[in-house]
Design goal:
2 domains; four-stranded antiparallel sheet
Length: 229
């Protein structure tokens, strides 16, 4: 099936593309909706501008659009980008990286039904720790780009997730009650390399922004590292 992939640059949307391709689907385009607010309930926010490098590395064209400040506006904008993908790439479905947000899934399913598209959710219901371990096994390199939960301080910003970090996150998630896979938005991630990429991303300049409870790792300059792959 020809699919458009809702793409934020994070681990969930990138891994869902990987799994959809493994299932035999063809990813015709990336659909990146840039929310005007970091409070978005449907969409990923930090560092979206750098998804263009990921698109280039995966050799998958990207369609981008900006959204408004609430769920209804976001759905209208998402409908517009899906219509563009239908017109340009003749997609038959949309893949997204949702794991257990029924609110998100219901909204996306309703929109896909309206446009006669199939919703593909490769990560739906996956066990959190197994998921993070699978990412490591498959050589997905990603960093944390925002945190907004008790137990996650500014030391996590920009941190690459390896086995020791998974064990630490598991402990903290049990202690503070957040989702180990960050499904509830407790943290956001950004993929810098994976099997889909022809070249990894190199972050040249970044800064941490921290208010005492939550913060983000803002990528200020980045490029594809052609010498590394």
């Amino acid at each position: 099936m020809k699919l458009g992939a809702l793409f934020s640059g994070g681990k969930d949307s990138t891994y869902s593309i990987y799994l959809a391709k493994k299932q035999g689907h063809k990813i015709k385009c990336l659909l990146s909706v840039f929310p005007d607010s970091e409070e978005s309930h449907l969409l990923h926010y930090p560092n979206l501008k750098w998804t263009s490098l990921q698109s280039e590395s995966m050799k998958i064209p990207q369609i981008t659009i900006h959204s408004g400040l609430n769920t209804s506006t976001e759905l209208i904008v998402l409908e517009k980008i899906l219509v563009s993908a239908i017109d340009q790439y003749h997609i038959e479905g949309m893949v997204h990286g949702g794991i257990k947000s029924q609110f998100q899934k219901d909204n996306f399913e309703g929109l896909c039904q309206k446009l006669n598209l199939k919703l593909i959710s490769p990560l739906w219901g996956i066990e959190p720790k197994r998921y993070l371990e699978d990412l490591l096994t498959l050589n997905f390199d990603y960093i944390i780009t925002s945190v907004s939960s008790g137990g996650l301080d500014d030391s996590w910003l920009g941190k690459k997730i390896e086995k020791v970090e998974i064990e630490r996150l598991e402990y903290l998630s049990k202690k503070f009650g957040f989702n180990l896979d960050f499904e509830g938005g407790e943290a956001e991630t950004f993929v810098i390399d994976c099997p889909l990429f022809s070249h990894p991303l190199e972050i040249l300049k970044a800064e941490k922004i921290w208010d005492g409870y939550r913060g983000r790792f803002e990528i200020l300059d980045a490029r594809l590292d052609y010498d590394a792959g």
